[in-house]
TrEMBL record:
<dbReference type="Pfam" id="PF13673">
    <property type="entry name" value="Acetyltransf_10"/>
</dbReference>
<dbReference type="GO" id="GO:0016747">
    <property type="term" value="F:acyltransferase activity, transferring groups other than amino-acyl groups"/>
</dbReference>
<dbReference type="InterPro" id="IPR000182">
    <property type="entry name" value="GNAT_dom"/>
</dbReference>
<dbReference type="InterPro" id="IPR052564">
    <property type="entry name" value="N-acetyltrans/Recomb-assoc"/>
</dbReference>
<protein>
    <submittedName>
        <fullName>Acetyltransferase (GNAT) family protein</fullName>
    </submittedName>
</protein>
<dbReference type="InterPro" id="IPR016181">
    <property type="entry name" value="Acyl_CoA_acyltransferase"/>
</dbReference>
<feature type="domain" description="N-acetyltransferase">
    <location>
        <begin position="1"/>
        <end position="153"/>
    </location>
</feature>
<keyword id="KW-0808">Transferase</keyword>
Amino acid sequence: MNIIKLKKENIENSLDLVWAVFQEFESPDYSTDGIEEFRKFISYNSIVEKFDKGELCFWGYIDNGDLTGVIATRGVNHICMLFVKKDYHRRGIAKSLFQTVKEICKKQDNVSKITVNSSPYAVEVYHRLGFVDIDKEQTVNGIRFTPMAYFLK
């Protein structure tokens, strides 16, 4: 078990994992427009462009050579993706990936919180990680989310 910062050559595999997990657990909570909007958001060309510009960073959880979980941040402190394969749920992988981001944020002088726009499915996961709701659930372009924050100490 190992968390690594993902490189450009890992992005396609990461996005395949994200899409598979999204389809199984997230898409039932979204409209057709929301599903399409998410699919566009994670399109390889769009993500790689942002990755190359340094706008997105990815970390992966590797278990026996298999990518089992992914976390991505926009900037340093906004989680824009956190997905774990079904067979690996409830094993602390999301927590470990979040810990990696948290440690990076703690080293930044100007970062006091980590934010996320949580899907309905993941709200309880983020609550268990210590996030609090900072606004009510919203829907934008078919994407349902609850704005949340984790305040660094």
